[in-house]
Amino acid sequence: MSRFNVFLHRTGERLALPKATRSLILVEIASDLEELFNHYVQQGLSEEEAAARAEEKVDMSDEALAELVRIHSDARSWTDRIARRVQPLWERLALALIVLFFVASAALESDARPFTYLTGFIWPILAIFLVLLFFFIVQMARFSDHESPRRLHDSLATPLFLGTASLVVGFAGTGIELYRTFKRMAFSPEHAAPMFSRAVLGCTATLAVALLVALAAGVAWFVLAGRVAKIEDQAAQVYMGVK
Amino acid sequence: MSEFQLETQNLARSCHEALILATLADGPRHGYQLALEIEERSGGTFRFNHGTLYPILHKLESGGFIDGSWDEPAGKRKRRQYELTDGGREHLARLSDAWTVFIDAFFSVIGRSES
């Protein structure tokens, strides 16, 4: 139990922020309280006096708390807002169903020779997927090592970057492939129809895979963001003496 | 005259920002260290309450003037540490110029005490 448990709970209740953000602020306040307490004890104050003095020094007015809430509400990125907003079970289930729908649709459409129609742009997309998979596994291992939440938080941008990269390759690949096809069609108009249909088939199949990889990246980010928020919250609970 | 001017409605905030940035110019500090050091260096003139400190620190951080990180010494409680960024150094220089102009203007109106 922290000697500042009651004080931290009281402050936490007045901070109208998402749990994870509030937790980080409380962890900061808790560590400053302990340091101030030690400082005052070293100055010769009794433990009770030092604790009271530290609390008095750290106590925040309603205006200061409102200012802190405003700063953190402005500073939160849209990705953070989504990660922290989508918390209830029904929202998570809805997301899982959307993912399942896409994966099932792709699986139903694929045949025994999945690479038959895909364009050459599938390789960088698959490479992105493998990097994503590796990154996700490494991150999950880091979670179990109780690494710093901040470092974990900093790494959350990677899945979003990989997802965007997959989409960029998919769309750019479609454009380039169609350009090549139109060029070939111009030189041999008699084969234009089969060339065009094959190009469209290849492009849409490749684009579908790119979209699935982007979706997987989104899911990976969502899972990791949820875990980071949980770890941050647990850290604050420990400091507040709840656990 | 400096292009950057202090807002008279926000003098306290500008003063606190300048004090924090100037203290961080000497090296990274934890929040509690900042408050104690400013109080000590000013001979007790600037008594910093953490309630005032956190919003300013977090605002400076979101503005890119300081960078906060978690310091985790082995076997010890982790602490939030702040350090000045290049943008913060520039902001401090602007604040310093603005305060010089402000204080000169203030004394040109009220005059300096003879005692």
The total of helices of chain A stands at: 10
Silhouette of chain A: rod-shaped
* Major beta sheet summary of chain A: none
Fraction in beta strands of chain B:
5-15%
Give the number of DSSP strands of chain A.
0
Tell me the β content of chain A.
Answer: under 5%
Number of helices of chain B: 4
Largest interface: A-B, 27 and 22 residues
For the biggest sheet of chain B, the summary is: 3 strands, antiparallel
Structural class, from secondary structure content of chain B? alpha+beta
How would you sum up this structure, described in words?
The complex is a heterodimer of chains A (about 240) and B (about 120). With about 240 residues, chain A is mainly alpha-helical. Chain A has ten helices and no strands. The longest helix of chain A is centred in the C-terminal third of the chain and has 48 residues, at about 190-240. In chain B, helix 1 (about 10-25) crosses helix 2, helix 1 crosses helix 3 (about 50-60) and helix 1 (about 10-25) crosses helix 4 (about 85-110). Chain B is built from four helices and three strands. Chain B is elongated, with a radius of gyration of 16 Å.
Structure at a glance:
Chain A is mainly α and 243 residues long. Chain A has helices at 5-14, 19-42, 47-58, 62-75, 78-85, 89-109, 122-144, 149-154, 157-187, 192-239. In chain A, helix 2 (19-42) packs across helix 3, helix 7 runs antiparallel to helix 9 (157-187) and helix 7 (122-144) packs parallel to helix 10.
List strands and helices in order, with pairings.
The complex is a heterodimer of chains A (243) and B (115).
Chain A: H1 5-14, H2 19-42, H3 47-58, H4 62-75, H5 78-85, H6 89-109, H7 122-144, H8 149-154, H9 157-187, H10 192-239
Helix pairs in contact in A: 2-3, 2-10, 6-10, 7-9, 7-10, 9-10
Chain B: H1 11-24, E1 29-30, H2 31-41, H3 50-62, E2 66-71, E3 79-84, H4 86-110
